[in-house]
Amino acid sequence: MRITGADVIVTSPGRNFVTLAITTDDGLTGYGDATLNGRELAVASYLADHVAPLLIGRDAHRIEDTWQYLYRGAYWRRGPVTMAAIAAVDVALWDLKAQVAGLPLYQLLGGASRSGIRAYGHASGRDLPELLDSIRARREQGFRSIRVQSGVPGLETIYGISDAADRRSGDGRHPQPPEEIWDTQAYLRHLPTVFEAVRNEFGPELPLLHDVHHRLTPIQAAKLGKALEPYDLFWLEDCTPAENQDGLRLVRRHTTTPLAIGEVFNSVVDYQTLIREQLIDYVRSAVTHAGGVTAMRKLFDLAAQYQIKSGIHGPTDISPVGMAAGLHLDLAIHNFGIQEFMPHSAQTYEVFPHSYTFRDGYLHPGETPGLGVTVDRAAAARFEYRPAYLPVNRLRDGTVHDW
Ligand code: GCO
Ligand code: MG
């Protein structure tokens, strides 16, 4: 099976997505997600200008070899742009191989290790009543595990809270990065009171998660983890910027709140200290950003030796193609933990017809051979790319802050 084409599809059905379509002389098409939120066109160019010309004529079955060829062959290693491009090729090749086999991808990864994939959804509110309503709404949609994000008194907008910033700008696509003001002390004082109220309302059993979004120093993160222990979180995510892997030793010494890290990582190397020293409990990479199915399997296998589980990143900036790739892995690996899942818009689903389903809190990739996601090229062409930026955080004195 020879590769005859590698097209980059850029589309914006409500938000921007970059998809690689690899075609073969057998007449098959495999898809891979290459979406890097806010920096999409860099990956589109990397693929179209530097990767696609190398793919034509290659044997589409040689997935590992192609991965190594693109990773080692470029000389310049790792980085979000490179690894998203490699991921797109890798996932498209897995899609093709599974289509040829006539099997859903998870069968090629060892078959199902469970009957469904436990998913968590996002709830948020600018204040407590809005947050409690949001949790109720998610539960009605079938979610059995909930990520809880709350506004903080005195802070006008916080990324991820009730999309307050989105309401300001219309559809949430910002032509320039919006700026938000952050106050760590106000957040640290407020957040434990939110979890206390949520536990009082919903009882001890509902699995609750929280995303700190890299905003704390290690000692602040340690303090928060400790303060949240009475509320028994499923995980505390990105409690401190984890490129300082050593910083997690300090957090770990102080708290038993489980820790999840890795959505901004793009290779297993980024996790070496975190995994070997068991400083985290869940690895958060997205298939789309960390080199595809081939690389993610190696990450999960390393993590498994240390009883660390998966928690694949699944916000709506991962396309349905990237989501499906994650679901096949989730179903197959032994050390599955939980999957993040925020349903896409109707427009996005129109562009990406898919076989995966969400029922009663559980996802399933479906039984369609391959990934089970295609691209409706005519629908994709109707939604033109529009530059869209993520926000930037500043402290009250104007200093740029982690977010
Ligand atoms: C999450 C994330 C996302 C990211 C987003 C950036 O846990 O879902 O933190 O909301 O901020 O993917 O593009
Ligand atoms: Mg996150």
From TrEMBL:
Which SUPFAM superfamilies does the UniProt entry name for this protein? Enolase C-terminal domain-like, Enolase N-terminal domain-like
Superkingdom is Bacteria
Which stretches make up the Mandelate racemase/muconate lactonizing enzyme C-terminal domain? 128-258
Residue ranges the record marks as coiled coil: none
- PANTHER family attached to this UniProt entry: D-GALACTONATE DEHYDRATASE-RELATED, STARVATION-SENSING PROTEIN RSPA
Alphabetical list of NCBIfam families matching this protein = ManoateDhtManD (NF043051), PRK15072.1 (NF011654)
The name of this protein is D-galactonate dehydratase family protein
